[in-house]
Hints:
By secondary structure, the chain is of the alpha/beta class. 29% of the residues lie in helices and 32% in strands. It is built from eight helices and eleven strands.
Amino acid sequence: MESLYAKQHTGWLNQYAGMHYGARYLKKRWSKFLPAENFEFIEKLSKMSIDAVDEACTNKRALDLGCNVGGITFNLAAKFDEVVGFDCSEGFIELCEELKKNGKATIYSCEEGELENEMMAEIPDSIDRSKCSFMLGDAHALPSDIGTFGCVVISNVLDRLENPKKVLKTIPDLLADRGICVIASPHCSLEPFTPKENWLGGYLNKDGQTVTASQTIKEILSDKMELIQTEEIPFALQYRIRNFELAISEVQVWKKYP
Length: 258
Ligand SMILES: C[S@@+](CC[C@H](N)C(=O)[O-])C[C@H]1O[C@@H](n2cnc3c(N)ncnc32)[C@H](O)[C@@H]1O
């Protein structure tokens, strides 16, 4: 199954591979203009997730929902016994599988016109890649036997889903008691990813009040979970050699009440 997302943006395999695994190349080339922190999103979000774990939670499985090319999935293996990377795009999952098998893969940055530059994506030897598995599927319809987790990461995915509310409502049942959910999003609601009637925020309600995604996430989760941390983390996605998208994700860390 190939997502609308991947069909419309074939170049995004390269762009996300650069974001997840090309930080050292990008920092070296662009440090004069772009502070290093713009290339540290994957590292920072992974660390924040690991640091937020409640050691009293006995479930040592993690789920990276919308794992893309797997940078966070592999990083989570430093802490968890088992990590599932889940994504609806075959191309992304293929790269994850190659990295799991070989520990490295050639990735490409879009340079000028049709020119590409080769980079090497590498998973550090300290990561036990055998703890990671990758699944192709739709986050709106997770396999019934996927089980529960001590940590669920949903990074920059909500505003790419057809029905983000539906997916958010499944979170408490995916978590073990004291399990955490780390949600990062730049809250860029856009059609055609998400039909307007399903947007988490970015509009005025019928009473003329502002509705934001940040607030809607809180309304959906706060029944069964506690918001334990918020943060903002920037990321730069390289479209072409001299063309970047700069975004700042809001990160909310939630813990399921025991
Ligand atoms: C913007 S990327 C973010 C990837 C990564 N988590 C990160 O933070 O860099 C969104 C990812 O969500 C995946 N995705 C979109 N809709 C999905 C769905 N319905 N089910 C599973 N994955 C989905 C896309 O294929 C893509 O890999």
